[in-house]
Specification:
The protein is α/β, with parallel strands linked by helices. The chain folds into two domains: 40 residues, no CATH class; 173 residues, 5'-nuclease (Rossmann fold). It has ten helices and eight strands. It has a six-stranded parallel sheet, with helices on both faces. It has a two-stranded antiparallel ribbon with strand order 4-5. A hairpin with a 5-residue loop joins strand 4 and strand 5. Helix 5 runs antiparallel to helix 6. The longest helix is centred in the middle third of the chain and has 23 residues. The termini are far apart.
Length: 250
């Protein structure tokens, strides 16, 4: 019975689950549950984060900010994620970035470039220009903090697209990069967590499942493509349900 009780304690402490009826599971049943749980936790798991979708499809509609340190810990503890890859964009102004030599914008060099630029030309700038550059520096510091937490960053320069109506749109299209790395790393994981509701990833995710990979989708339910939810089925988790675990507390 001591072994049985230790299994219960381990399961609840590690999974944070509150499954109905667990109190009535027999000792033999708990052995089976723990064997299944350990099998899942031992699957080599990688997580891929679509930053744009997570922010615009997540934080802005959730009404609360995501604590990215808590998110990192959650993905490790809940799913045993061995590697967490983050794909996003960063403003580089006139910083010289070599697309052929780099797979991600070098943050330290970029931070130094912008802070030096502000120091040299700041006195001649108006308040709006200084505010914009200070926001860029703040974003860089945010990414440096993600790196410190343990995220593997893949950052692309934000580009300005001119539209026919005269408006401009700032974008860093990272979808292809994320899809590429899903395939590049395919031999390295058995289970993949995709933090995005973008239906453009569906062809790649269908292929991953076809070749035997377990695919889990975490996203904001109301901002997730219908076909993504249909594909994920019971392997879909709505960020709304993770507020307690992931909300940033200032």
């Amino acid at each position: 019975m001591e072994y049985y009780e230790s299994l219960k304690e381990t399961f609840f402490s590690q999974s944070h689950s509150t499954l109905r009826g667990c109190a009535n599971v027999t000792p033999r049943g708990w052995v089976f549950i723990m064997e299944c749980y350990n099998t899942l936790m031992n699957l080599k798991t990688y997580a891929f984060i679509d930053a744009s979708n997570l922010f615009y499809g997540g934080e802005k509609s959730l009404g609360w900010k995501i604590d990215y340190k808590k998110l990192f810990v959650y993905l490790q503890k809940k799913y045993g994620a061995k590697k967490i890859l983050y794909f996003g964009g960063v403003e580089i102004e006139s910083f010289k970035y070599d697309y052929l030599k780099n797979e991600s914008v070098p943050l330290r060099s970029l931070e130094k470039y912008i802070t030096d630029y502000i120091r040299r030309f700041g006195p001649k700038m108006d308040e709006a220009q200084l505010l914009l550059l200070s926001r860029h520096v703040k974003r860089i510091k945010f990414y440096l903090k993600l790196h410190e937490f343990g995220y593997k960053l893949f950052l692309k320069p934000v580009k300005i697209y001119h539209q026919e109506n005269g408006n401009t749109q700032r974008k860093a299209n990272c979808d292809v990069d994320l899809a590429f790395h899903l395939m590049k790393e395919i031999e390295m994981y058995e289970r993949v967590l995709v933090l995005s509701g973008d239906g453009d990833f569906l062809p790649v995710l269908k292929h991953l499942r076809t070749v035997g990979k377990q695919v889990i989708v975490l996203s904001r339910g109301s901002r997730t493509a219908r076909e993504m939810r249909q594909f994920a089925g019971n392997q879909f988790t709505d960020f709304v349900r993770l507020k307690k675990e992931l909300k940033f507390e200032s």
